[in-house]
Amino acid sequence: MQTEWDIVVIGSGNAAMSAAIAGREQGRSVLVIEKAGPDLAGGNTAYTAGAMRFVYDGADDLVPLLEDPTDPRLPHTDFGAYPAERFAADLLGFNDGRPLSREQRTLIAESYDAVRWLASRGVKFEPIYSRQSFEKDGRHVFWGGLTLATRGEGHGLAEAERAAFAGLGGEIRYDCAAEDLIVEDGRVRGVRTSAGAIRARAVVLGCGGFEANAAMRAEFIGPGWEEAKVRGTPHNQGDGLAMAFRLGARRHGFYGGCHATPMDLFTPPYGNLDLPHLERKHYRKICYFLGVMLNADGERFVDEGRDFRNYTYAQFGRAIMEQPGHVAWQIFDASVDPLLYSEYRFHDAHFVEADTLDALIDRLDGLTDKAQARATIAAFNDAVDESVPFDPTVKDGRGTRGLALPKSNWARRIETGPFKAYPVTGGITFTYGGVEVDEDGAVLHESGTPIPGLYACGEMVGGVFFNGYPGGSGLTSGVVFGRRAGNGAARAA
């Protein structure tokens, strides 16, 4: 068995595999080591919906990326455009007054080229008709700047990247947990693993953040976060961060931030490993913009229609974690039921249904103030401005009037039975704090100089996201910084 390589990549998710593919493209010998077995390989990537956000000028930029460029829906589709300026504005909307970081500018500038590079390696894309478009006047109108997802969603992306790496002659070792880095004469020279030492000329840390580590969540994100559901893999325990910090790596980014999605309250503690990969995402519950969300005190606590859901779900998942008992209820009436995404009809979706609102509220276990819940919905119904047409393809301005907490768009009276309430909690997907890397993806020491032979990508890179993120940016960031780290490691090797 080969024990010395040009590059060892720790992890097998999207960012790690992007680094591995880039390294092999440069002619370097590359080994990927993965803590999990083949059934759980792919890190959090395998749990995602595969959507990627990137800059594009119009349909002509998208069609070359598609698995089926002859799809008969394409001539009747309005993809719009997503210029760099809009991507920048979307990121700034989550920065809490911070200017664009160096990492964010890199993400924007390299986003389209990174996705096009993936497509050249056999990763193909499909328009997200079911979740990112609504039909209007006989056309499919996309909204929110997010248009494409990988074929087979996150699981398909992970499989395609592994196939691309194997096609380039790369090797993956499973059940091979990295335990520490080998350092000689001030340079990283390999990895100590559960299966023995592996020597290398460069090491890429692509093994995720600390979202599966309850103690680290409580320490960095705050009290109560130890109780969060983990949307993805149980293996992202912060091991890569710990290895980097032992070498004096500089902490970078917002450690108090994370991607947290509204999830079914009865989601398993980790992504449901008993389900097929394509079903694991169905525990998400992100159609709150079509109804209202109430906490256990019977109060609304967010503006459900503040923006398109792919700009708010990461923040609203966190908002639910801040409510009493870390729980809320998404309430809908029959008029919007046909618009709810497939996860609301998933065979394991939990909800309460009743013919009247009074009966629905009476059946909500854990709702401590049912009278307030009735008053909240009655006040909401009275405040809906029905003079504005409902249009889910745009921010329609159909809001409420006179409420202390408005609903800014897509407000509809909750009055047509039967009614449904979906209990939800916050499910953490990935963390935002990491290490700082230079333009080659090399990990920087606290002194500001690169740690020789050490590179990082994916969740390991801090400074990309702060108080939230526009949906689909995470996978794109993984490709951008994974490719950079792979190329940088190849040059160093």
Verbal overview:
This protein has 2 domains: 4-211 and 432-492, FAD/NAD(P)-binding domain, CATH 3.50.50; 260-427, Flavocytochrome C3, Chain A, domain 1 (Alpha-Beta Complex), CATH 3.90.700. It has helices spanning 14-25, 59-62, 84-92, 102-120, 129-132, 153-167, 214-220, 239-246, 313-321, 357-362, 370-383, 473-492, and strands spanning 4-10, 30-33, 51-52, 77-78, 125-127, 133-136, 139-142, 148-150, 171-173, 178-184, 187-193, 196-205, 229-230, 251-252, 258-264, 292-295, 328-332, 352-354, 419-431, 434-435, 442-444, 450-456. The strands form 5 sheets. Strands 1, 2, 9, 10, 11, 12, 21 and 22 form an 8-stranded mixed sheet that branches. The protein contains 12 helices and 22 strands. The mean pLDDT is 94. With 493 residues, it is of the alpha/beta class. A hairpin with a 2-residue loop joins strand 11 and strand 12. The protein starts with a strand and ends with a helix. Pfam families: FAD_binding_2. InterPro entries: FAD-dep_OxRdtase_2_FAD-bd, FAD-oxidoreductase_2, FAD/NAD-bd_sf, Succ_DH/fumarate_Rdtase_cat_sf. One of its GO terms (molecular function) is oxidoreductase activity. Its cofactor is FAD.
Task: Compose a concise summary of this entry.
The protein is of the alpha/beta class. It has helices at residues 14-25, 59-62, 84-92, 102-120, 129-132, 153-167, 214-220, 239-246, 313-321, 357-362, 370-383, 473-492, and strands at residues 4-10, 30-33, 51-52, 77-78, 125-127, 133-136, 139-142, 148-150, 171-173, 178-184, 187-193, 196-205, 229-230, 251-252, 258-264, 292-295, 328-332, 352-354, 419-431, 434-435, 442-444, 450-456.
